[in-house]
Amino acid sequence: MKLINKNIAFLAVFFGLVIGTLSAQEKKRIDGVIAVVGENYILESDIAQGYIQAQASGIDISDKSKCYFLNILLDNKLMAHQAVQDSLVVTDEEINMFIEQQTDRMVEGFGSLENTLKAYNKKSYEDFRAYFFDIVRTNKLAEAMQNEIVKDMQITPEEVRRFYNSIPKEELPVVGQEIEMAEIVIKPEVSKAEVQKVIDRLNEIRNDVLEYGSNFQSKAIAYSEDPGSIQSGGLYTITKKDPFVKEFKEVAFSLREGEISLPFETEFGYHIIFLEKIDGPKLTLRHILLTPKPSPEAIIAAQEKVEKIRNSILNKEITFAEAAQSVSDRKENRLNGGLVVNEATGDTRFELNRIEDPVLYSMVSNLAVEEVSLPRMVTDRGSSKPAYYRLIQVTAKHDEHPVDYTLDYLKVREIALRNKKKETVDKWVKDKIDETYVKIADDYSDCELSGNWIK
Asked: Which of 87, 150, 236, 308 could form a cystine bridge with 421, CB 3.0-4.6 A?
């Protein structure tokens, strides 16, 4: 869907888009300072990096001037400055965990860690991490400040209606072709012996730490199968509001500092948790995840089962929805006939050209309504869960159309709320400019900026 908010890069800054280079003191020595906001500097190289990062993110930069990127950076630095004044905290653990996650994505994009280091002209992973630490800290502070400004913000149906009616008909965003789909998931069976093997291994690791003083962090790096925390030694900082699975949070918040849990099960596999620190409502912990694996025979049996199910559907012996209700291993949507919910929007529609999973896109892109895909063995992206077989049926298609208030209410509401938040942030920025020391170089004094930056 084409969003109304044109300032994509502005939002991207607050959700982790890296725009920056070196630490402040290093920058002053080797680079031209073009602006100061509180204690934060903006350099010529920051503007250049903004162009590079925007282009890498798919943003059209053909009409973007230096003033455009300066405006984004001014907002970002002001947010970070005020976050420090308001004592908002971003921990080193949070920064390191974010760097680890982003590094994994970069490595995936560049093909290897070596290629990633070359792209940023870094000789070692340690240099790479040091390069990004201050940058990520500033962006995380800015993000924390923005979240503080708009926390608990809601929008009423009447506000949504007024927002929709304020858009000229010829400027309504266009919703691309959408589909609705249902799924049947068949997971290869894991033997009790394999489960016990994993539990025994976790107990062995736990005993090594407790009885022989082994380092839990090193054990996590060596053995954990959680792709989101391997590099950081299983590190997470969580609160009860964070979106971790229920079983994980229940165990974590039952531990005392320095305690290691017994092995326990979640949908991802089996874990042990080492609670490092309790800081009010926040826990700093490390965990190790091991996932029991199905045998080759179990994988073959699952393949035969899913093919038999598909044939029964094609032969009209059972409907797709009936099969999903009776045999699908996806308990979240089994009772509604396997209907898949779009997590990004909360409804059941998926804009076809916005499906990011290449395997799912290949399965559904050429399916007609009520047609059933061939079974595919898939894994959840970024997950350690074992692969499983998946059947997809397209249940409905919707042609490209201008966004409709009734038909696309959830999408309209999402855009309206985003717009309301942006207006609130913009007003906050304009108010805070007058309270903050700001100095912009004469070379940029002719820029048309969103606030009274040039005093």
From this structure: 150
